[in-house]
Automatic annotation (TrEMBL):
The lineage of its organism: Eukaryota, Metazoa, Chordata, Craniata, Vertebrata. This is NADPH oxidase 2. One of its GO terms (biological process) is superoxide anion generation. Pfam families: FAD_binding_8, NAD_binding_6. Keywords: Cell membrane, Electron transport, FAD, Flavoprotein, Glycoprotein, Heme, Ion channel, Ion transport, Iron, Isopeptide bond, Membrane, Metal-binding, NADP, Oxidoreductase, Phosphoprotein, Transmembrane, Transmembrane helix, Transport, Ubl conjugation, Voltage-gated channel. The keyword Repeat does not apply.
Length: 302
């Protein structure tokens, strides 16, 4: 038995030593941004740090806990000179980090007062394959939109630098959220992309659909009253917010009809139940003919 155990144990110990060495490297927090709905953004720098879109890191803050490591998806693009994560304040550890960063204070905080942070990673995910397709469907649920913030930022940088070498030609973006507060910090990025694409006469490059899955009667009445306005009253975007849940069968059939004979990447960051639904739709809407349309499903669950 020991012959079978010693090999994997040796590799495991080597991996732990590498992770320990990486976690000891100095990380500098360059900016802390407080977004609505108790979401904070940490912008950091680390010597030799290289990332790809959609990757994640493990973060430890000794001022909060000396042993706890927590995974967070990177929301920055590889083209930026820093890396960032967005953190929703939903538990004891995130609350402790929120207070350690001085976010509970009204006055401006000096950089030297920010807590020390240890970072391990980055680690790869399925989202890295986004640029391998000409057409993609990006589906985020709630805070699961974070990897697609990185993807959309990187698309913008690549598009501005040299659009002719960008294989990706069409993005269908879906965001499902229970309440309006979570839209606020991400809508700015979509507004910027929407404006820039229109200025370059390529507004069709990004098609996005935002679904508010939890809403009450007063919200519905407000929506009806302002439906005819040019911009959406919730997000400020030209594309109006939709209510309820998407009809995935219709969405897949429509996209399949618009891109015959294509390999379409479907990327999800969301709950397991939604993953099962999208996986079944990807299979049922893919054609048996190798020359027909095929949906390739990729997922990250939380």
């Amino acid at each position: 038995t020991w012959k079978w155990v010693v090999g994997p144990m040796f590799l495991y110990l080597c991996e732990r030593l590498v992770r320990f060495w990486r976690s000891q490297q100095k990380v500098v927090i360059t900016k802390v941004v407080i977004h609505p709905f108790k979401t904070i953004e940490l912008q950091m720098m680390k010597k030799g740090f290289k990332m790809e879109v959609g990757q994640y890191i493990f973060v430890k803050c000794p001022a909060v806990s000396k042993l706890e490591w927590h995974p967070f998806t990177l929301t920055s693009a590889p083209e930026e000179d820093y890396f960032s994560i967005h953190i929703r304040i939903v538990g004891d550890w995130t609350e402790g980090l929120f207070n350690a960063c001085g976010c509970d204070k009204q006055e401006f905080q000096e950089a030297w007062k920010l807590p020390k942070i240890a970072v391990d990673g980055p680690f790869g995910t399925a989202s890295e394959d986004v640029f391998s397709y000409e057409t993609v469907m990006l589906v985020g649920a709630g805070i699961g939109v974070t990897p697609f913030a990185s993807v959309l930022k990187s698309v913008w940088y690549k598009y501005c630098h040299d659009a002719t070498n960008l294989k990706l030609k069409k993005i269908y973006f879906y965001w499902l959220c229970r309440d309006t507060h979570a839209f606020e910090w991400f809508a700015d990025l979509l507004q910027s992309l929407e404006t820039q694409m229109q200025e370059r006469n390529n507004a069709e490059f990004l098609s996005y659909n935002i679904y508010l899955t939890g809403w009450d009667e007063s919200q519905a009445t407000h929506f009806v009253m302002h439906h005819e306005e040019e911009k959406d009253v919730i997000t400020g975007l030209k594309q109006k917010t939709l209510y309820g849940r998407p009809n995935w069968e219709n969405e897949f059939k429509t996209i399949a009809g618009q891109h015959p004979g294509s390999r379409i990447g479907v990327f999800l960051c969301g709950p397991e139940a939604l993953a099962d639904t999208l996986n079944k739709q990807s299979i049922s809407n893919s054609e048996a003919d190798p020359r027909g349309v095929h949906f390739i499903f990729n997922k990250e669950n939380f």
